[in-house]
Protein 1
Amino acid sequence: MKHILIVSSLCLLFVGCHTATKTEQVPNIIFETDMGNDVDDALALDMIYKYLDEGKINLLAVCSNKDSKYSTEYIHLTNHWYGYPNIPIGKVVNGIDCENDAKNYVKKVCLLKNENGDALFARPAFDYDAVSEAVSLYRKILSEQPDGSVTIVSVGFSTNIVRLLQSPPDQYSPLSGKELIAQKVKLLSTMAGSFAEKPIVEYNVLKDIAAAQTIAAEWTSPVVYSPFEVGAAILYPATVIENDFAWTKFHPVVEAYKSYLQMPYDRPTWDLTSLLYVVENYPEYFTISPNGTVAVDDKGYTTFTADKNGTHTYLQLKGDQPKKNLKRFIELTTRQPKTINN
């Protein structure tokens, strides 16, 4: 999510190796989100369910870094609505204070009622206290995966993943967090930072600067950043929300979008880009920077230094790539899911 400006970007080493093609095994993804701070998180999560429908990803978990009951309840709601009720959910504990940073669309959607006074989007009762703490869930899942097989798509604050990085051995693995990441994680794709001619301090970095600094300095796998200016150049149209979901009377993402800001508005697609890069053949959609190193200063600005031995890269847009991105985003999000549990 990025309704404020941020700066922290990381890049990807061995560029072509981390983008799934038709001949590669589908990526094993953990989706890390600050669901509820901006509506692009909801759109990106919708894309994840569509990729699951297509068999293009294996979703291991969705973890929220927004310290909010409704952030995780919204994920619980959509898991059931889209027909994937068993996807594990993780929550941040004592996370960054962002409850009042934006209009709480996740709470609005979770509390919607039908004409009978029942939940508009039916799902089992939600027990926030029973939701797994994110770092523990990360360690459990990573310990069970083949070496070098997991991609983390992080589109919120770095709070959870820096805690994972710094975590000690536990019942799931004798490895430290840094060792576990080095063994199991092939790529971190993160929406963060700004590398424009006039960079800004981007929201995801600004909210937890210390965590973003540590990720840039110590993360052990290749990292690719999708900076603020990439998503800001691709605007999701309000006309699509208004006209292209007629196949259902009520849709959780449509209701979220309509409640987030006063309609009609076109919203940048920051978080969607980090996911698209991982799942689909990036040369069609993005231009990748050279290898290098990202640094985050104490104000939250990110800088990139080219270095052929660096493990960081960042996404750029050239030519008609913004149009191609938008076309694909609209195709995916407006498609009817295979299963809808109303």
Protein 2
Amino acid sequence: MEKEGKEKWKDMLRLLRPHQWIKNGVVFLAMIFGGRFFDADCWLATSLATISFCLMSSCIYCINDVIDCKYDRIDPVKCKRPIASGRVSASEALVTALVAALLSLAVSLVWLPAACTGVLAAYLCLNILYCVALKHVVLVDVMVIALGFVLRLEAGGIASHIWLSQWIVIMVFLLALFLALAKRRHEVVLVNRSEKQEGRRSVTGYTVPFLNASLSMLGAVLILGYVMYTLQPRNGVEYEYLYVTALPVLFGIMRYLQLTIVENRSGSPSKIAYSDGPMLITGAVWFVSFMLLVYW
């Protein structure tokens, strides 16, 4: 009985998908790019905003898994998810979603500016629409995912009282769109190989050549946008050599294109962030060089 209880808790934890919380690290970008990385007050406010988004995103995962369970059952990988496998019931998942959403809003209401609660509410409504209908609309699906990352960034800026450059907002949107399209490409390839059924997401509106062209275009625009950002004065201060940090950004985008187009490994951006050595090294090089040039 005790063993069954432990397994149940493990399944409930899997339902919340804590491995996906790395996406909510976008909340910290406002603090990093805003020059307030060593501000203790910013760390506290940003951490609370991140916790709120982790809870709210887990709420959305629960709702999504309930809606998608009949499709997940026929997927060779997703059939192992707690609801699809029958280890967690739909009612248990919905109660968990409600608790996660209430906790998220409570953290925001008690410790963060009121506008943060508005951003969280907008994120919740947008993603419920996505789970119910928008995920089936070609191009709109990936646009909604990208907007979710912009809302994370905005929450970080509001929580820390940091003005966000328009270039940062544009780049976060484009990067999220880039990653979402790369994931769609992975799905299209699997469907074409008959390794995956179309399931809940119609992939008929996407083709591999279209996605390759879109990814190449977005990669080029991302690089240009980042270079423009590095040349823009912030708070009246010009950082003469900040453009040098565009090199690891360029390598990172090209590496991700290689993983996507050559190796077809873009099915899980979170997994790549955790496990791909060159991407991890590139991220570390960018972070160290950026911090030295901006903060030293």
